Structure formats: C-alpha cells, structure tokens
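Quick look at the format.
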Amino acid sequence: MFKKILIANRGEIACRVIKTARRMGIQTVAVYSDADMDALHVLMADEKVHIGAAPAAESYLLADRIVEAAKQTGAEAIHPGYGFLSENAEFCTRLKEEGIVFIGPDVKAIAAMGDKIESKKLAAEAGVNTVPGYMGVIKDADEAVKIAQDIGYPVMIKASAGGGGKGMRVAYNDTEAREGFISATNEAKSSFADDRVFLEKFIEEPRHIEIQVLGDAYGNVIYLGERECSIQRRHQKVIEEAPSPFLDEDTRRAMGEQAVALAKAVDYRSAGTVEFIVDKDRNFYFLEMNTRLQVEHPVTEMITGIDLVEQMIRVAAGEELGLAQEDVHLNGWALESRVYAEDPLRGFLPSTGRVTHYQPPEENDNVRVDTGIYEGSEISMFYDPMIAKLITYGATREEAIQHMRGALDRYYIRGVGHNIAFLSDVMNAKRFQEGRLSTNYIAEEYPDGFQGGTLSDKARLNMVAVAMVVHAFEFDRQRQISGRIKDQSPAFSDEWVVSVGKHDHSVRFQATQDGCMVYIGDENFVVITDWHPGKSVFVGNVNGRDISVEVDRLNTGYRLTHDGASEVVTVFTPREAELAALMPEKLPPDLSKYLLCPMPGLVVSIEVKEGQEVKAGQPLAVVEAMKMENILRAERDGVVTKVAAKPGDSLAVDEVILEFA
C-alpha cells in the first residue's frame, strides 16, 4: 500500500480524498494556487505545495507543476479527483513515464472514453444502446444546421471533450442550432482546449440515470447500482439520488450488464461511471463514460456501504477487488443536494466573495456534508461555485427526503448567495416527492425562474409562533444588559401583532414551566426550544413536531428562513403596528434604462454599438463567469445611448454595461 499520495485537485473532493487516505493510514499532499493558500484542503493535508497563480490554466491544469510537487514530496501516487486533469490521457501517460501511480483507470480507457465521438462507436461495438446522431466532426455553424435538420429537432449539441455541462446546448430550430454551435464551440475551446462538437437526437421526457462500475487489473468488473441525476439546470446536475425511483429490477440489471460490458471492452480498472439517458418507457441509451470519480458518488456509498475512494486506492496499489457482483446490496435510499454559491432569484447567477458565516448541519448516520470551505473562506471566480454536497440517508425515499428538508433548514450560510432555498423548494414539491422526474424538471416547474419558496398556511403559523418566541427571548435578554435593573425594565406585553410578509396575526404569548404557549387567533402552539439570542438557527419543537428556522436580526424585526421560504417578520405591540401601517412604502429605483452585469464576470463580447436600435430578445453582450458563457439579451426595444464596458473588462455585479434611451 502507498505511504503517501498527492491530491491533484482542490475544494470538497480534495478534502474527501484526504479523509479516506487518513483513515487508511496514508499521508497526503495538497497542491494549491494563489487563491487557495488558506483553503480547507490545504489545512487538512499533511503537506502542501504551491503550484501557481489563481487561474486553473496557470496552476491545477499544469501537469509539470503537479509532477514536480509529487517528486518534491515523495508522493508515490496521485489521485486526480474530478475535473482538471482527472480524464487527461497525456497526464496519465506522463505519470507512467515518471514512475508515479495514477489513482484511476489506465490511459487506454481514458483515451477511449474521453472522446465522446469515439466512445459512442466503442459502445455500439460492445453491444451498448446508443442515441441516434452524427458522430463526425462538424466544421462550421452552417454544417451544424444542416445536420440538425437531417437528425430532426430537437438536437443536443455537445463538446467532444466536454463534461460538467460545459460546451452543451439544446436546439429546437435553425437559429438555436447556429447560436448553440458557436457558443458550445467557444466554451469547449476555453474549457478543454478542444473545440470539436457533435450532434445527437435530444430525447424528450428524459431521465439521466448512471451506473457506477468498479474494476481491477485482474479483469474483475462489477456494477454498484444506479444513480438518478435528472434534476439538472443548464445540463449541470443539482440533485442526485440512489437508487432511482423509476427503474425496475430488470432494467437495472440490463443497464448494469451493459455498463460492465463497456468497461471490460476498454480493460477498465478503478471507479467509473457509465451514463445513460432513459425515456418514459425505460428504453435506455448510452451517453458517455466518465473515467473518474463522480461528484455524486456519496449516494452510492451510502446505500452500498462501499468507500469508492478506498477502492480506487486499493486497485491502483495492485490489489484485487475484494467483492463480487453478488456481494453488492442496495440498502435504503440516499439523496445529494449540491449547494452552490449562486443567486437562484437572479437566474442562478454565480456569487463570489467571502463566506462570513458558515454553519452546516450536524453530521450523523443520516446526514453527511462534503465541503471544501469554512467560515471565512473565499468563493473565487476562478473555480466551480460549489460550496458543498449535502447527503442524507433513510430507510425509504420518503425518509431520506425528510432528513434532507431538515438538514437544508439547518444549513446557515451568509456572505455569498446560495441555492439552499431552491433545493428546499424542490424537496417540498409534490412532483419530486412522487418521483416524477426528468431532465426538464426545473424548466417545467420553474418556467419563469425561481421566485422564492412559498409557505403553506401551516408553515406560516409555525413561523409566527417561532418569531414570537424569538422576540420574547430577545426582549428578556435586552432587559438584562446595559446596566438595567430587570425589575425596573419595561414589562413584556401579553398581546402582539406579528407580520409575516403581508399577513398580520394577532398573537398572545405566555411563558410556561416547560416552554412557551403562543396563541394565534383560535389556535394554540406549544413551543419547546433551547434557542437563545445569538444562535443562527432556531431548533425546537412546535406542537410535537421538530422545526428548524434560520434567524437573522434586522433593524425592524427578523428575517426567518424555513422550508425554502425567507420572510421578513416584524413583532409589534398593537399600537406600534397601527403606526407602522401609516409609513409610506419605499419603491425601488428604475433600472430599466440600463443593462447591468448580473454576476461578477469577464466581458467576452459586446454585440451592439452606440446609436444602434435593438429589439427585445436581441443579444447585447456575452459575459463569462465560473467558466460558463452567458448571453445577455434586450428585455425590450430601445436605442443604445452608451457602451460603458468593452471586451476583456472584469465587472462586478450590477456594474453598467450599456445604457438605453
């Protein structure tokens, strides 16, 4: 077994690998860029080596720096994580030449499966179902349109060397095919240094279901069940689960056997994933094989009890798999929610900055948090915006969902935008709970984008009860500070008006020996909690049911967040409520005459000139953020009066790009 390994990655996956290596008694080496000097993976590792500037192309993608770091520290093997150099055949070959073990498959499998065009040909030869499409290299946008017409819309445009949703577009007509080809080609070139793209038929009402495989150098290959990854946004997975609520045992076995056949065809050794698209009739088609560890691997670990990172290390060290197919059993259910630094209320645009408060839910047998940050960490514009992966387990899917809802309510992050409210909203949805999923789920359920979670009547009353208790405890705390004599401080009133959004509630409060009684209209609420002022999350019990509510103190009240909904709550005496109702409403400024940068990013191009007339929907500018190109379009007809930015400019959020008449 190895004595020391280097992790050629960063963030949560680097931390994840370090945890398993530590448990196995293996020392670890972290590499880091200028932006990651104080990152969590650097603090966790036994040794650290600086490898360059913040951009990945100047650090994590430099094979020479990684190899030199391994030699410098005496690391015998390198675990690549995912992304960066994890599926780079040249890097794998280089390590072999240097006598450093690559903790992953052989270069043959990486090269064969890394090219999506060639991989589909190999899959077909191995007897794996494939999607109809054009596997040749497309030379320009005109040819892309002609091929799309021949296949029949809708079509999927995909980068041959792509992954993670980069260089991928869906086109429903000639215009979208032309624009999609150009954007996909540009993204592919900047992300993978390979601008080849191909087209295939886009399966409607599709599910994205993948099979985890595990192989060794002795010809043994097994599959560890499937993962449902259908909840996606911009082809980027958001929520995954294992097993799939859709597959039956026969389909699972057929998919698993085809995945194993493909793995054996390329002499696969290590952990890998064969991805399929599945239609409403359970017909399945090969998408691609990822010759690396997947982001969503924890859900497989939770239901099989198999540590995939450990298996990768053991196989790389020359060991034979210690289990056969009949040893694999799927027990219970697991869900994974990807917590991203983004603003779901602004079209899920990336958010960067310092994490000023960070309090994840407590880990236990049912809750796992894989993260690469801590309070004070910086979310950089140079890398993927993932904050963490939140994984929950239950004996049933319903139980796993309930654990996820509770854990999301207890996940407190401030300083950067995040998508926790959106994740909670999905978990609360009847369609999701019934397992009626597809890769179109988000587009269908949120056609106008995410507008924020909504509270049910019951949840709103629970929030009112919590707000009343929080205010009572705050009031009691204030009576005991600033040199006040408690007996001479103002008495706590029995009657209050609690406003949640635009809903006013007449409330009476009474402290009891065991907790608090809150009377809202004709309903009584018994609230039991050990919360005290200063705690970020109210954890307690309302009428016998557990509840978690995030609490932020405001000048005029509180912002409470629960079940995916965030509401400003005020607690007034009846007289204060009367006076507050007389206050004029403050209206936001009119920004309709400006095109503002919706996220921190780099201006790729400006598509218009001063004095030019534009129509609604017309492209105005392209901004790149978190390695994704975003086309900014006109919301209405108008005339450009000023161009305030130019290609190459780095802009902050809400910085002016264009002005209109």
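Next, a different chain entirely:
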Amino acid sequence: MSTPPKPIALPVTAVTCLEDRAHIERTAVLDLEAGVQRLRLGPVSALAVDRTLHAELTAEHSATVLDVRIVRTWTPRGPLPSADDDSPLRLRTQALEEERAALGRRCDRLRARLDLLGRLAADLLREIGEGVGYGEPERPRWSQELDRVDAERDTHGEELRAVEARLVVVEAELGDTKRAMSLAEEEPAELVGHVELTVETAAAGPVALRLSHLTPCALWRPAYRAVLDGDSLTLETEAMVWQRTGEDWSDVSLTLSTARSALATDPPRLDEDRLALQDRSAAERRTVDVELREEEIGTLGPVPVLGLPGVDDGGETRVLRPPAPVSVPGDGRAHRVPLTAFTTAARSEYACSPELSPLVTQVVRCDNASGHVLLAGPVDLVRDSGFSGRGTLEFTAVGAPVELAFGSRDDYGVVRETEESRDTAGITQRTVVTRTVRLHLSRFSAPGERGDRLVTLRERIPVSEVSAVEVRLHKDACSPPPDGVDAEGIARWDVALPPGGRRTVTLVYELTASSKVTGL
C-alpha cells in the first residue's frame, strides 16, 4: 500500500492551553476512496506526544481508523538564493573561490614551466659534455643558453612562490568567510513530523477528520490592567501565552485551563498521629507560660507561592475563553490575549500602617464584576498621570472585594514613637505593662492647594488567647480615641488633614498578667 508523497494540510483549529503544555486539535476534510488507504498529513510539530495521538473520522458511510502514528524526519537545508539575492558574504565567497581556482591553475602552469626548463637545462648540459668529448666546443652559445635558462628558472620560481603565498592567504580568508556565512545565514536542518493515517472506508466520498494530541513547550499565566479614572475603575483581564512548539497558531479557538494533567490522581498518604496524655508537674501547675507571636490574618483562597507561581485556581479547575479567535506565533515570546473587562464604581482611601511602613498609600477597592474568578497575577496600574507601577492581584471569587494599591504619596510623612512601662500591682502581684504609641502625621502641600484630605491610620493591639492575660484599651488616654477596633485588634483612625497640616494620634493600652504568667 503506497503513501502519497505530497502531504495533506492539517492546520491547527483549536488549542487548550494548560499550565505547562497544550492540547492541540486539528481538523480537515479528506476525499477518500473506497477500501484501505494510507494518507500522509501535516506537517505537524515534532514535539507532539505520540501516546496522546487520537484520530476520529466522521462520515455518512462507514469509516474506520486502522492506524495513526507520527513520523519524524530531518528536512534538508534550503536551496541557495539566486544571484540577484546574494548577500555580501556569499558574493565575497564566490570571488574568493574564483580567485583560488585561478591561482591553482597558475601554480600548475608555473610548475609545468619550471619542469620543462629543468629538462632543457639537463639536455643542454648533456650537449656540452658530448661537444667537449668530440672536441667541438661552442663556449659562447653554451654560455648564452645556460644564462637564458637560469634567468627564466629564477623568474618563474619567484612568481610561483608569490602565487603560492597568495593562495595560502586566499584559502584562510575563504575559510573565515564560510564560517561567518554558516553562522549568519545558513539554517540548520529542522526536525519535522508528519502523521501517517491508515483508514478503511466502505464507499468513496468526503470524510471529516479530527486529530488531537498533547504538545509541551506551551503555557499561560493571567495578567491584569487596572485603569483608575476618578471614582471608577476599569479592570481588564488578559492572558500571557508563550509557545515554542515549532508551529504557529493562526486564528485558533483558544481555551485557557488551570487543569494539571501531569499531577498524579492518587490520594495523599495518611500517616498516624498519636496523642498521649501526661500529668503536669507541680511547677507547671503553678505557672502559665505565654509568648508574643506574629500571626497573619488568613483569608479565603490559595496559599501564596514564592518565586514564579503556577496558576492558582483555589483547588477547582477554571476555564477561560477569549471572545474571538487568536493567533500566537511559535517564537517563544509572551503574547497578550484579551479576555474580559469591566468598569465599576471604586472606593479610594489614603491608608497607612506605620508599624509596617511609614508611607501613605492610595488603596482602591471594588467588587469583582467580571463574571468569573480573578486568578492571582500581576496587574499594571494606570491612573491620571499614566502608568504608575505594577502590583499583584490576589485570588478573588465572583462578587468578592478587590483591593489594589496604586502606590505611595510623596506629600505625606508619618513618624511612629513607642513607649513601654512595667509595674506590679499590690497584693495580687499582677504585672501591668502599659504601652503608648504616638503617630505624627504631616501633609506637605503645594502653594494654592485647597481642601482637606482623609487619611486612614491603622495600628494593631495585641489579642490575648488565655484568660490569665488581659488586654485593655485606655480610651480616655487615647488622643483621639480610635474610630473603631475590629476583632483582630486593629485600631483605625480617619484623620482629616488640611494643606500643610499636622496631627498627632496617641494610642494607649495595657497588658495585665497574673502572677502565674511567665514569658512577658
């Protein structure tokens, strides 16, 4: 059974891009004859995974796929360009090759001439010997002939040495030119794959073919662009797609998925966790050991990943699709693919947490109205002055609040001061630790600036988890009292600052511990 030498085109029509690979779908309509025949389709990417190759036929009559496989071959180098399209390197190479051939022919002629002159000198010396033997010397003629032969031998010998020296220079330059041309112009042989499909049909006619396979060297990551315009925020969702599969994706139906087909499906192994009871000693019953620790407030969503993250989907496979067909060249570069965009009302505030940073940052909040979850990824921040920086968007469910920081404000300054005093109260021997935090807030305004600006200050108060330690806020000593304290111990002040204004906020709280407590 013969295979047609000319392959049938099998273009890419749909791509499902996963976290580290792509699922490629190709479709074509084949005009088949009745019986069994073998077809050559392609070319296709040589990186296609053979074990994932799958072919389906759809026809009005019976059609069966008997065998499908990928055959890879090295394509030869392309033909040389025409003389009109020759590059300077090729023209120089041709000139050097012509000069080398001419010098070679000149060397051959000079060597033949010198050989002939050598035989002529030998015949002349033999004639001189014979003439002397017969007693018929011809000294003037012999001397003239010997001088003429020696002069020609010297002349042609010098010319041969010059030609050989020039030939060495030309060969060295020709070698350098060819190496430069091979590095700059000649393309190496390429590994190309073709699909060999063996089918059996009951009757002749058109048959629709659908072929799919996995291909590595393709991935995608989410990216965003946030544009702040007054009280409205426009959030554009995009996908950064990279692929170097060896072929271009032209006007394909692209699907972006967070499925991880490479991960094992086995459940995690369960290890034993044994708990043992032990009686406390008398010293342990008399004391309560406590310590201060930093605790990050947890939120819904996946755990952040340091370095280059994967696609965080919150434990559930997410699927995104662009609204129109897209084209992604196989050059290995990042290409932006627009997905969705929405505009919504935004709430903006100038916030500062002096314990973490002395900078006042503009924080913008809105609700996720995109209709799909927002995966964690970088976001380009744009406001009135143009591009203002790049931030990070956390995993956000549909309708959940989105929080973006649009950079710090240089016209604010915050200084934080802390004081601590320790005392023992009376007969109970309770330890009282009083802490005072002062926040000095300043606004540096340009001449002619009008209007107050609201700045939100946040300072944390320790939260006790044991009854032996109590934390109490002294509202009377605070100046001014906090506008609110949440369950996590975060105190908040909304401070209005006029142009060039200054304010000082004072927070006072105390930790009271019984005599049994140690570690404070």
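The chain has four domains: 12-76+189-215, 88-184, 220-261+311-409, 412-518.

See the schema section for token definitions.
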